Amino acid sequence: DDDDDIPQLSSHALAALQEFYLEQQHREGMKTSQGFNQYSVGSIEEDWQLSQFWYSDETASCLANEAVVAAGKGGRIACVSAPSVYQKLKEQDGKGFSVCILEYDRRFSVYGEEFIFYDYNHPLNLPENLLPHSFDIVIADPPYLSEECLQKTAETIKYLTKGKILLCTGAIMEEQAAKHLGVKICKFIPKHSRNLANEFRCYVNYASGLD
Question: Keyword DNA-binding, does the record have it (predicted)?
């Protein structure tokens, strides 16, 4: 039987090999969660299959700064499908606000308790400890330019926010954004690290610094 010539690992050697692979995975995980700067935009790469397009560094900073001002001292900020803004906010950690990230991509679970798994198809399927109207501002960037996606994300936004909304989506969604969230387009033009085919805009429902 030819199979007799195939070397077999002993159970001890197999266990040692499995331990080695686990340690290797752990090291890679540590690199992801602690590495150079786990909060830098791009530290987790875009997944285009999930319709992910990160903001440019300047845009992410601008939106993060706007959120901090809008939330006020001791404010709470929710980032819904807007991880690059969350990352910029975390770079300012310790400045008197708290933030969480609601995201479908489980790679962002490296951010620990601040990560909340979120699927816009189930807009109110949220943890019990995420109380209604408990965030001073909600920043949202629905993954798809469709009214269905915006409408469902809007349910989540309205559940979470005390009032202030900062929405980032395509210019073609202006009418639907007003209809579902009562937001108006800003002068500020958000940019992405890679140019998108669709014109992108910001929308707010309060007096912001984006005009």
Answer: no
